[in-house]
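Hey everyone, long-time lurker, first post.

I ran two proteins through the pipeline my lab uses and got sequence/structure pairs for each. Pasting them in order. The first:
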Amino acid sequence: MATFDADMILLNVNARYPGATHDLAIWEVSTINRHLRRIYLEGPEKHMAIRESGYPLQLWLMTPITDAAPNSPEEHYTKCHVRARNVGERGNGTWKERFRCLKKRPNLIL
């Protein structure tokens, strides 16, 4: 799991789990989740992560509204959410182009 900021700068990578592990399970034990939770609850600044709909809505974790009514504020929010989330998708793609070994899951012994 990788986390990027709005400028596609890689902030965090968690590669401890095999590919079959659900992203939510990784998120729940990740350092970035704990960090965002702590600074959201304790600090004056409010930082948030953007994830897909399979994640629970939390104060520091924004998810899309999947059943938003057409032309509603919820639909507008979800469209903005999708655009923001695309930054992470592009970040993943950029890293995979730069480091081609990330495109496939080779058996590497380090």
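...and the second, right after it:
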Amino acid sequence: MKNFLINRLSPFFSVTKFSKICILFLVDSHLLIISSSISYLITYKQNLSLINAAIIGSILVTVRLSCFILFKLYQVSWRYASTREFMAIYASLFLGSVVLLGISQTVFSGFVIKEDFLKFLIIESLFSLFFILSFRGFIRLIREEMYFLNKNPSTNLLNTLIIGAGSAGVMIAKEIQKNSKLEYNLIGFLDDNLSKVGQLMCGKRVLGKSMDLKNLYEKQDIDVAIIAMPSANSKKVREILESIKDTNLKFKITPSLNDLIDNKVGVQDLREIVISDLLGRNEIESTIINKDNNYIRDKSVLVTGGGGSIGSELCRQILFYQPKQLIIVDNCEEHIYQVERSLKQDFSQSDIIYVVGDIKDRTDLEFVFTTYQPNLVFHAAAYKHVPIMEENPKSLIKNNILGTYNTLECSKKYNIDRFILISTDKAVNPTNIMGGSKRLCEVITLAMANSYKLNFSAVRFGNVLNSKGSVVPLFKEQIKKGGPITVTHPDITRYFMTIPEATKLVLQAGLLSTGGEIFTLDMGSPVKITELAKDMIRLSNKEGQIDIKFSGLRPGEKLYEELSYNESTLIRTIHNKIFKTNEFCKFNIDKIDTMINEFTTRTLYDEPITLSKLILDYVTQSNNIESQVIS
């Protein structure tokens, strides 16, 4: 019977928009006539008059329909109507009643009793409200039933559970139910709020708590679980995944609260769970940069290494602060091409200069500084791969040490307002020459800042997820090939943060800079690389299929990294994730000049092993550090 009724009514939903409005208008007219007639019979049963009933009814229907048009009730798609649209019905009926009361003082005054008309109007309003709401609810119900009938029976729908019966979960459920093209068959919800368990949401029951997932997976043959908890932390996401190990259940997750636009989420926003969802990093919610202290707005900003992982994201985030001009320098044409393509899509109106240039070449830098006159410099250009650099100390010295010195010299010469060096945790007690080179970059920056009273500083942090050549993309590639995943040592750990988080904090550290500081970022707890590998295998649904192989520590590789030489003397700043190290290097500018001259000369003829030793020798000399304990 239900299917018969739906099939009979379905042609109504296939007509043109204008035809639908006309049909709805006619239905409303008849419903209002019925409401008026019933109310008249109830109110005036002792004194019935067909003429009076016709006059009152015709004026009432005209006023009510005019109010419906005024409140745009015929422009609403009732299939997607929200509380706001239904409130418009209440408002239009109330306004119509006020108008009809006014009319009763004049037009109706000769043939109706005021007290009786008020009673009539109250009864009629209730009947009209009931009929109008019921009909629109009926339309909505029919459309939802048509959705299920229109599903292609041959389509293999995915049995789906939504974990989280809050607003995000309900929005996802409504879209699944309304869009017949989606491949999901909603089974129900899970929620850790016990008061919701057993309740109906969008016609589907909350079947239990999130930890009941495995039990329901086996009983209900679930294919997909959607984690719809934008405020959930990584610990919660990890708990859910751990509760259903060794299965083929697929997961989708909604964006975090910070990534949602207007707190709205839809099926198009769902994504795969990625490793950053499990690493215990909380999103940065606070920012200390505002319209009053925005040091980037209307400034010309230079980013070296702007085509790299950190550099390109720095460029993207800098543009949100509305610089006058952004100059991106990179020595790789492909990197410049990629960053140009990316930024042109979102910042087509911004003034962006793309320069294929090399910080090793002083003339390249002189050209950039004289032509574009930057006010701020973010120095992200560097070689960073430890094993490769162990074999190439000459290139490392030229790029990291001499290139940084060139950039600092130009920044001093052309009166740059601020210079921020992007450093690394590998610069602390380095056991490899890459880390040693970055430590010397810090030393040069601090020496020049202190000697010339310049606002030159460094920001030091650990590994970033998904940077080019880092462990995460390497593991992805190994998993794709069927394994094994290679880890150098069972106990090796590293600090991790996402690229957007790291760059966001770099920009905020730039605001705190007064010159001569090394800032370090709150990296959270170190992550065991073996556990990271296991998590990535689990996320790829290949548990038991991919092996982990230990290959041994590589030359210069440490088991663990440090963020400062003396963590007990770190100084808090006004940002809870940014600290200032209390390190004072004794290298003066004369010692820096001597070191640079020696590196410049000896890269011309020295053997690699001699150059490597020279880097670490200078690190040892520079690390005669005084740290004052701040009381």
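Reply from user beta_strand_b:
Welcome! Quick read of the second one: The chain is about 45% helix and 15% strand. The CA atoms of residues 384 and 491 lie 22 Å apart.
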